[in-house]
Amino acid sequence: MNATHADRVAALADRIPPALYQGTDGQAVRPCTPPHVTERHLRLLDVREGMKVLEIGTGSGLSAAWLAELAGPTGLVTTVESDRGRYERARHLLDLHDSGVLAVHGDGFKGSLDRAPFHRIFAGATPSLIPDAWLHQLVPGGQLLTGVRISGLPGAYAIACVTVGDGGQPAAVTVHAGGYTPMDIPPPYGTTISNEEDGDHALTVTGDVDDIDLSRSFDALMDPGYTEKHDWADGWLHLKNWIIACNPDGLAVASVPAGTGVGVVKGRHAAIATDEGIITDSINSPAAEELNGMMATWIAAGEPETERLAATLIRRDAGWAVLLQLPANGMVTTG
């Protein structure tokens, strides 16, 4: 990304204020993604003048208008929205403000074949799998930015930037911290135990749970024997993704009264890292020991951001899943 592109993205909110699309009259579309986050992701996508761009999920229409501003008068922006009410509202506003965007009511999973191929595709949502249609509708060297699942665990979301080669085959992928609203309901994954009284608290564990006492490990987090406060600053999401990339046996996500986080379950022991600290049954439990080991490797590696981890696309069914890993040599990538 060059400085000129960064400057153009930074000026978007001044040239096209979010209130034009999100509204100030009590009829606003409440955005799932704050405008400053959309700006950050548009920097990653690197939309240039004259490009053809497809957006999946119109929402308020703001991001489509911003994409059209970046593509310029010689570019073409198409946005697809599945919800009829949001589509009609956004189309009206996009036309009212002379955005030049073509708004389409349709199935975002299918893309927009009649307007393809595109130089860029921006999907402000998270599919269970990246559809073939999106990759096949990009020119060679084109890029897709989309929400992705980096694990089947609840809340394991991130942002992927995929570059395609010939024939719509993925050539490269980088993963960044963040997330978008799911587009569909993912299939069941892992083994879950929840609080029968209110259903708000749950523990989900992946892998072989034969040696796990799920009930006792859940109880250990519901009423933990040890907690420890940490100030992760802005690094919490990166630590969370690091733990997911470590993929230990008994990788788990839990939501309990003391917090929500990711960690590990071993036997009847459990330990999770939340955005505020550590929750575990005992400071000396084997689960806490393993979690502390993963955190120590993250710190020793310089607390790397998510995009410095290794990422690959794995073919599954009729789409692509993202696998986030630590490099084989134990060192994070620098690019």
From TrEMBL:
<dbReference type="InterPro" id="IPR029063">
    <property type="entry name" value="SAM-dependent_MTases_sf"/>
</dbReference>
<dbReference type="Pfam" id="PF01135">
    <property type="entry name" value="PCMT"/>
</dbReference>
<keyword id="KW-0489">Methyltransferase</keyword>
<keyword id="KW-0808">Transferase</keyword>
<keyword id="KW-0949">S-adenosyl-L-methionine</keyword>
<comment type="similarity">
    <text>Belongs to the methyltransferase superfamily. L-isoaspartyl/D-aspartyl protein methyltransferase family.</text>
</comment>
<keyword id="KW-0963">Cytoplasm</keyword>
<dbReference type="InterPro" id="IPR000682">
    <property type="entry name" value="PCMT"/>
</dbReference>
<protein>
    <recommendedName>
        <fullName>Protein-L-isoaspartate O-methyltransferase</fullName>
        <ecNumber>2.1.1.77</ecNumber>
    </recommendedName>
</protein>
